[in-house]
Design brief:
The structure holds two protein chains of two kinds.
Chain A (H helix, E strand, L loop, with lengths): L3 H23 L13 H28 L2 H33 L7 H22 L5 H25 L17 H47 L2
Helix pairs in contact in A: 1-6, 2-3, 2-5, 2-6, 3-4, 3-6, 4-5
Chain B lengths: L2 H38 L1
The chains are: A mainly alpha, B mainly alpha.
């Protein structure tokens, strides 16, 4: 398992490099926005990856509530943390893109606001996991995760149902996209998804070690109290 | 500001965020390994 990590890391790094090359030099330049539109190839795949990770978090949280499986709890924590990283990228690259195109960094538009709320829900989930020592914490966190997941479809479909400054979805919505742009977008999504798997893998190993240390510490204190 | 600078800023910000996160994983991992080593002594 330890050897598999670098074996998977090398193709992921190569894929990320290739995706970067495609985004910067191969994808055609958009007519109205110019080169700044290339932010799209990092912004959109990061958003899709965050949604995917929050979906994994939902499935793992429900599994934990039903079966009380500690592995499901660990998967829920890991996917939420890596999901927050990708959601942070969405919230940072979005305003950087908006400034030259809309003339403003931020607006309290439905898509932007629901994304910020989504980020805040999962940050509060992580704060709960980090600072609460109660045995009920995984259960409470799982319930919070279910509420958080309810915001994901709201973020995604907000631009379908409300008037918004945010562009329409490029796939399955009213918008259309050049096939070459779509190709580069999908390559970048694949690269970021593989990278997200790597991050989750590393974070899961860390979580296992954390639980082993906690167990060893409790055994140690039990041992000392019986002396 | 040249619009291309916004493109560079977005790409750099993405990798800085990932770098900070990977750094935090590495720090937490070393700390836990040290804790485990101390417990085994």
């Amino acid at each position: 398992m330890k050897r598999a990590f670098p074996i998977f890391a090398v193709p992921t790094a190569l894929l990320l490099g290739y995706a970067f090359y495609e985004a910067m030099w191969v994808a055609p330049m958009e007519r109205t926005m110019g080169d700044v539109q290339r932010i799209f190839y990092y912004h959109v795949p990061s958003a899709w990856t965050a949604f995917l990770l929050f979906f994994v978090n939902l499935v793992a949280s429900v599994t934990y509530l039903v079966r009380r499986n500690p592995k499901a709890d660990a998967v829920a924590l890991v996917s939420a943390e890596v999901g927050v990283v990708f959601c942070t990228i969405v919230l940072v690259t979005g305003p950087i893109w908006a400034r030259p195109v809309w003339g403003i960094w931020w607006t309290w538009d439905i898509r932007l606001t629901t994304t910020l709320v989504l980020w805040l829900i999962y940050v509060s989930y992580l704060v709960l996991r980090r600072f609460s020592d109660s045995s009920q914490t995984p259960k409470l966190a799982a319930v919070l995760a279910i509420f958080g997941a309810l915001d994901v479809p709201l973020v995604y479909f907000s631009i379908w149902f409300f008037r918004t400054q945010h562009p329409q979805p490029v796939i399955g919505g009213g918008g259309s996209i050049d096939p070459r742009m779509l190709h580069v977008l999908l390559i970048n999504w694949l690269a970021f998804s593989c990278f997200a798997v790597m991050l989750c893998w590393a974070r899961y190993r860390l979580e296992r070690l954390h639980r082993e240390v906690e167990e060893a510490e409790s055994m140690e204190s039990l041992h000392e109290s019986t002396r | 500001m040249n619009p291309v600078h916004y493109l560079y800023a977005a790409y750099i910000a993405t990798w800085v965020i990932h770098g900070v996160y990977i750094g935090s994983l590495e720090r937490r991992y070393s700390r836990l390994r040290q804790q485990m080593k101390d417990l085994r002594k």
